[in-house]
# Entry
Amino acid sequence: MSTAAAGTPPVTVDTLNPKVLKCEYAVRGEIVTHAQNLQQELQKNPDSLPFDEILYCNIGNPQSLGQQPVTYFREVLSLCDHPALLDKSETHALYSSDAIERAWQILDKIPGRATGAYSHSQGIKGLRDEIAAGIAARDGFHASGDNIFLTDGASPAVHMMMQLLIRSEKDGILCPIPQYPLYSASIALHGGSLVPYFLDEETGWGLEVDELKKQLEEARSKGITVRALVVINPGNPTGQVLAEENQKKIVEFCKNEGLVLLADEVYQENIYVEDKQFHSFKKIARTLGYTDDDLPLVSFQSVSKGYYGECGKRGGYMEVTGFSPEVREQIYKVASVNLCSNVSGQILASLVMNPPKAGDESFESYMEERDGILSSLARRAKALEEAFNSLEGITCNKAEGAMYLFPRLHLPQKAIGAAQAAGTAPDAYYAKRLLEATGIVVVPGSGFGQVPGTWHIRCTILPQEDKIPAIISRFKEFHEKFMDEFRD
Amino acid sequence: MSTAAAGTPPVTVDTLNPKVLKCEYAVRGEIVTHAQNLQQELQKNPDSLPFDEILYCNIGNPQSLGQQPVTYFREVLSLCDHPALLDKSETHALYSSDAIERAWQILDKIPGRATGAYSHSQGIKGLRDEIAAGIAARDGFHASGDNIFLTDGASPAVHMMMQLLIRSEKDGILCPIPQYPLYSASIALHGGSLVPYFLDEETGWGLEVDELKKQLEEARSKGITVRALVVINPGNPTGQVLAEENQKKIVEFCKNEGLVLLADEVYQENIYVEDKQFHSFKKIARTLGYTDDDLPLVSFQSVSKGYYGECGKRGGYMEVTGFSPEVREQIYKVASVNLCSNVSGQILASLVMNPPKAGDESFESYMEERDGILSSLARRAKALEEAFNSLEGITCNKAEGAMYLFPRLHLPQKAIGAAQAAGTAPDAYYAKRLLEATGIVVVPGSGFGQVPGTWHIRCTILPQEDKIPAIISRFKEFHEKFMDEFRD
# Structure
């Protein structure tokens, strides 16, 4: 007897893959759907709500809030999309000469100059070599294009590694809490166990190796095979930048415990404090004398972050070192099943890892755009942090890097009670009320994980600088009313 | 005790996800790696091999073999990548006026005109609406942008559906044999069971509903829950175009048996025979009177195929109809975890579904490019088919559509013996010998599946037309020598 004959629809939520049902992705979750509905309402009836626009501070999406792309990068992409332009004299009136030269160089790296062809499954070899040269210049240690896998942003790269490493729920991945929900979602989708380690809010979201050890032992005692450690540096949603000494201890820990180190380094250009610098985990490992034979290490990078913020281009790469040739072959195979990442994204990844140099025609304007964005982000981070810290019942660590603040909400018992009555987590309740009062969209801390009984929100630092004062005053006004309503 | 202390490397092939190990992807498999090695050899030492170039007939990658992109599409992409051009008068000297107008229209559909922002998880709403309008114009039935999910090519869309539908190896997906190995790979990666149905080579790769029924019953008798039927139309690797009556029976079969119909329609523009036409399965279902409530149906489309062949752009979509809102929400969630597909690919998908119209400035040159490519492909398909059929021990069905021929090799027993002695399948042995003698890369039939005891190769029709005579003569010469060597 057929299913249909029995009257059951072929597919219901109950007959979907339960791993999909289990997966959650707060950054685009319920609160965002609610915001989109309010936005539609606002379009239909502009006076219906107590604000005139929705401010999406839920996601690291700089250009959606008005950040302009870097001109040089877009010139090169535009030329590579339409190479016939390169033969025309009029082109020089519209494009800078070094962008034209760079487009030629890139086309020469592409077999047949065919930007519309599937590339090698790892990405175009010449572009991978250029990225490797950029990594070597950054780190002072050799890098090889053979170790680069170009991907459509960092997310598919993370999925790929989870798919390779996770066999069952008995395989665990050590992840920071709070974490970027891509990790929890990907681990859930691939059926593994997230083994949490807690960042210490008191010490500026410190990552303590003792905590890693404790959680590793605890997972092992439950029969979990811990396969990898995820570190996000600079941190998301927490914004801390790890100290070099700390990174060394983390590398030693992975080496001693036989863990793959999955290093999310997509915010490597986003550092806002004088006393901190970005060091890649590969540089740290090589500084310690570890070679390719000692430690499996994957570094994720993306064109979506940094000062470029090219989220829509979906470019990125992972640098894969320390695996056997046989394992590498399996990574290659999984990459092959999707053929290749998009070639424009590949080109852009090579550009961000090898931007204009001093002496190039575009160098000065490029540096002006770059530094303008980064210094503005630093000012925005500081202004928002100070604003949060000025409010009753909110404490907020500095954003040393990345694109987010993760303030803690010390909520009155009455507010917690109101949330419970509404059947929602207290931080989700707060975020919903904030949205409905101000149009500001933030993500409740519960989407990232937090120490039980503490409550947070993640707020990006990305609204354009001229809007920050208004955002702060809207936020303050809301928060004060909220506290007045619920103060114990 | 830690793993490392015990001396085992953290990751070996034996400790990888066994589903990854099980997955195979012949289109980029062993023979291609061998070809890449020969190509490197050829670069170092041009006289070392009996040919002077490698001809990649293993993969549907038109632009890698010299096909030029459609000018209008690339103009629009180039402008959207660098919108600052749109304000400059010099731009009119380089771009056609309707491409400029179209770029404006597209930018107006993108919130904030931000082509560098993450879009809605399903893709930019205005572009989805344009695609839906294109589908409606093609089919004569309503289509909705809300049902479109834009993806980085068709492959991630197929993975997404497999991930949703497959819970365990007890869930089966009916797939044609021969099939495009994306399906077997994706089913393996998600841990399901491929339930094969055989296409009938005798009747031009006919798809018989009796065969579907037989295989469905057999799978059910083994305790497999068959969840979906994959149909590839036009066929890959088999090139047949289904007749309307046949499609109706397939739709009825899915409806009666409670199966999701997964319709791979990426070759919808590639039809080479007068007496056949493409009909989408959604059109067939609506013609039969079935609505959204009757039948879950997913149609996959890609910018990589057709006359455009923009593989490197990774654009595509799936049109999803007939699922409950709750199931749709889960599809949306999985799409969200990867944020969005690349925006250039999204724009290109909207262009191929809504190309220039009569009266537009670019219309004539566009039609000339389009028809030039399609008619040349038809001639190449015919020339190669006739060549294959002229050879001893080869029979080859017509390529009515798609980009491939799938000739059957009636190999002498001695050749089969030689393959066995070399520890390889007879068709893989033949493909390797062909590559080493001629530089022509084809994929052994075993990578697609075939009736046991039959042997095939898949060869694309994509080498440029002026090269076809030389390819045919190289192929003939090789084949005759091969037969002379092994004739029983």
Notes: Chain B has two domains: 13-66+368-486, 108-352.
